[in-house]
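Reopening: structure tokens for the 1,3-dihydroxyacetonephosphate complex, inputs below.
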Amino acid sequence: MRKLIVANYKMNGDKKLFKQIVKKINKIKLRDTKVVLCPPFIYLNEFKIKNNIVSIGSQDITNDENSKSTGQISAKMLLEHDVKYVIVGHSERRKIGENDKLINQKINVCLNNFLMPIICVGEEKKTDKLDIVLSQIKNALDSINKNFVPIIAYEPVWSIGTGKLPSINRIDKMIDMIKSFLKTIGYNESLVLYGGSVGLDNYKEIIKSKIDGLLLGGVSLRIDKFIKILKGIDNE
Ligand code: 13P
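Re-run output (same inputs, fresh job):
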């Protein structure tokens, strides 16, 4: 099945690195894999993509396009830079105060502007009850219309950047839980990605689970490794 691989560069990279990444990514040929690259806002301009399997995403969006907001970025600005996807509610933003209500408003702004939100959810600690994830999803999609296919990125916070991964069983259990919960609230179709400490050494294992794709952090900055992962997944 076609996989969606999203690169979240977070607050990393510079013009030189992104020029190299864009050059290489423009040449890559994949049969059955879709790629989304999410640079920091200030580097969106470097991402002149000439490859129809690759799209641009942003790492955030404003929740209120009508207010006077110093430092915020609107949907209109993102659309002008060919952005198609938006990461919403990443745990690193939740950590600095982003709550479910704000995330819900941002999803609304995305959909009103034909931008596809990638909605991040995940438990803080390995020992946390997993239904926290379902309440994050429920709140994120509160009053959101049912005519779209939600993309949920399941990213256990304890796994991000730590080298610690859930077992394939646990990932599969989460995917099943998330997909069946989404059905109960009216979304029959959905994509569920996994994110957290995925690298060249473990992606083959992770991709055997029921996931529809990956949200990659650190490894996406290592262009040669990133391309190996893309090709490896495409050949599965
Ligand atoms: P790492 O792959 O560096 O653990 O980061 C995952 C992540 O947070 C992607 O959004």
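The pocket of 1,3-dihydroxyacetonephosphate is lined by residues 8, 90, 155, 160-161, 195-198, 215-218 (CB under 6 Å). The longest strand covers residues 3-8. Marking as resolved unless the reporter disagrees.
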